[in-house]
What we know:
Shape: globular
Strand content: 15-25%
CATH superfamily: Alpha/Beta hydrolase fold, catalytic domain
Distance between the termini: 27 Å
Number of domains: 1
Radius of gyration: 17 Å
CATH architecture: 3-Layer(aba) Sandwich
Number of helices: 8
Helix content: 25-40%
Amino acid sequence: MEFNVTRDGLTLAGIYEPAPQPNGTVAILMHGFTSDRGYTPTALLVQLAQRLRAIGVSTVRFDFNGLGHSDGDFANMTVLNEIADAQAVLTAVQTRLKPQRIDLLGHSQGGVVASMLAGYYPDVIHKLVLMAPAATLKDDAIAGRTRGLVYDPHHIPAQQPMDNGETLGGFYLRTAQLLPIYETAQAFAGPVCLIHGDADQIVAHRASERYDAVYQDSTLHLIPGASHRLDGDARETVLQLATDFIQD
């Protein structure tokens, strides 16, 4: 069912899918850079939500600002305001659904957002699953190389046209250079499942290795041959690892 949330005047398009036999847990799923909450049966978050509901976990998926069916302009998107989006969804889940437990699952940039939100809410979040978390976005911004864009990291332009027709805002890159990703993430002391492909050409698996080093209770799964999309032969492994971890 529709689960729209308003954040600073923007409507974020969300969907709540209750489990047939709910166990009191709600999982919030977060998508990556330029992606969406999933609108096809083959989308990672759609498949993940389906598997979670089968084990009694109700799910909420949403589009970050400027993507999918949510309000906003992608050119204004930053990791910081995606954290604000996720915080607004978390609050809505708490107040509207009143679950016994809340888990966060994020892919790519959604993994960074989930990790930082859990760091801000370590007393609220139960478990955390990070799939190919894109913490290297900070290193990329410092180096002046982001998703195929090349720029002067000391003189970042106001806008950067991307190959997919979108425009990336310079403020995204400026804030990315200074994000306290791991410093914030490590405030979460609960169980963490890290999943990364060793053939990921977009986010090096050292990002997950570094997360694994700062967390108190984490398990890292490196999937041989898996790409950043965690698709193909790797998909079933990812779905199984995530659902087994949430179910335990």
